[in-house]
Amino acid sequence: MKKTILCLCLVFTMVLGGCSQNETEKQAETATQTKNAVKDKGGDSVTSLSEYWQEGSAPAKALSDYVAAVTTEGSDSFIPAEDRIAVFDLDGTLMCETYPRCFEYMVFTDYVLNNSDYTPTDEIKAVAQEILDTAWEDKPEGISTRQAAAGAVAYQGMTPAELEDYVVSFMDSEAEGFAGLKRREAFYKPMVELVQYLEENDFTVYIVTATERNIVRALVKDTLHIPPERVIGTEYGYTATGQGDTEDGDYTFQNTDKVVFDGNYFGENAKMSKVDAIVREIGKQPVLAFGNSSGDVAMCEYTITANPYQSLSYLVLADDEKREWGDEAAAAEKKSEYERAGIGTISMKDDFVTIYGDGVEKNEDAASK
Q: Phi and psi of 183, rounded to 5°?
């Protein structure tokens, strides 16, 4: 009897708003905070995929129809706001990775080769030089792993805030593969519009990328307004400045300590690692997924496999050879492969009205230098 009375009292208290917010209210509050943050920084409400998407674009229509269906209460396809999870890859999905390499590679080479405050080892310098020497060629085998591991060592001893400061400064440099484009502007406008459109419809958007997490946090903060806790990326290790060789489990952080990178690299967040990270860090199966390469297929397949809700996944095709450094023939092969797996495709050539906006052109001379 006492237990029954206690339970009724608790329910009554919660109904009156006494104890805590339920999960739906928390989700709604987070969505509102995100919208307000965008508006505070000069962002506009996005109520449709129209400004940067071609009229008649099949993916834009499918996504618009999907959002309408899953956000309409009473619809058979309705998804509660707290379960509207969308995951996006970064390089080649939301922003340029061909100027001439993805941002992470280029900020690393700049830090190693052009930063007077840092003296690289011969091994670290060799990785940076390899990236530059092969910039306009196919990626060397294993360069992603070599770069990530070298980056962990290069940034050893820096605080995350110090790395962010370097990244923000480098974002103001010119994107060599284009004329009229700085690196901070090198986001695909249609995909930015898509992110904003989803957030307007109470989707919670995460970045799930192979790029190091702190670098991505700095990159997306002012363009996509994605909060740091919704960025999932490749991980570097951390230590306290006073810790020395003491194991984490044996050391207590002191008020004189700073947290700095410790030189360790825990593997690239790609393919199945992305699924693993989603399960661990989000704890819910996404209903929308967007990527651009084989490293994103696992995340896309996971999203649409045995999902209790209606779900979609798309891969962006780098098939625009005039406005971007795309390869139409290679993209056509990928399109067939992806669609056989049940994954939709977005064509930069056919679906985007613009990629980077007016006044931006490919810098054809860059590749011949």
A: -60, -35
